[in-house]
Amino acid sequence: MASLIQGATLMHEHMHLDLSRIKKDPDTCLDCTQETLEELRKLRKQGVTRILDVTNTGMGRDHDLLDWLEQESGIRILHSTGWYKDPFIPDGWSEKSPEELADVMIREIRSGKAVVIGEIGTSKNRWTDNERRLFEAAVLAHKATGAPVYTHTTMSTLALEQAQYLTGQGVEPDKIVIGHMDLAQDMDRIRKVLKTGVNIGFDTIGKSDYLPDEKRVQMLLELEAEGLIDHVVLSMDITRKSQLQAFGGKGYPWLADHFIPSLLEAGLQPDTIRQMLIRTPDRILGEQT
User: In which residues is a divalent metal cation 2 bound (predicted)?
Assistant: First the structure.
């Protein structure tokens, strides 16, 4: 397996996350440094060489920790900038103008503190005023820096609206990833989003409480057959302590250890897997050096 995915990038992960302020659930404080490092070392042996961490302001972003994990694991960890969605936007930031928010993003990107704008999101079936300001700011920051934009959709709702808004405002489609599209369970919705030219994330792999992986496999087979697979990226989106192997969960290595073998067994071509894990991330983020 390591030879098949050598050079792979996981495109939507969190190495350190804290949503417990809002969720009032200690499980949503992902602060298990040693356990996370052990799993990252497993990922490196599997062939994963880069991870996009989409944790941003208000989500528990910790630049120093990410740098340490990168050094200790041998996996390049890319940082993100921005704010998440309501109600996780910290006090003080929701009153800022799009221009003020964009200035922060631009500063972090130009200083090398971050390379991606994300994850910025919308609520379930609802796009709040605060969230609209974040998207306006993301457009400004992208135009100033060229940085990719990675979005959060709540159960894939408003995915098409996100794609149409960003592309309509001049964000380069190939620099956009609309997140959590595997949760759509609706191939027509997925096709419509892909027709805008953007990329999509099948990035909640292993979260069977949302969707069994077997359904993700079948959707990817359909996208491969229709020639749409080159705009799909993969990830796990680990967000809870209980999702780590040390606490009984599937952990970051699940994708390579279990999901990819399921794809191969179902008949997905090895080159398709390399496309989703290597070539498409390289196209969006730039090739690894």
Answer: 119, 152, 180
Domains for the chain: give ranges and CATH numbers: 9-285 (3.20.20.140)
- What's this model's pTM, rounded to 2 decimal places? 0.97
Q: Is 180 annotated as a binding residue?
A: yes
63 is in an annotated binding site: no
Tokens, residue 84:
């998440």
Say if residue 142 carries a ligand binding annotation: no
**Extended beta strands in the chain, E state:** 8-13, 17-18, 29-30, 48-53, 76-78, 80-81, 116-121, 149-152, 176-178, 199-202, 232-234
Whether the link from the prior residue into 212 is cis, omega within 30° of 0, is no
Contact between 167 and 174 (Cβ < 8 Å): no
236-248 per-position pLDDT tens digit: 999 999 999 999 9
Amino acid (one-letter) located at 250: K
Please tell me the predicted confidence (pLDDT) of residue 50. 98
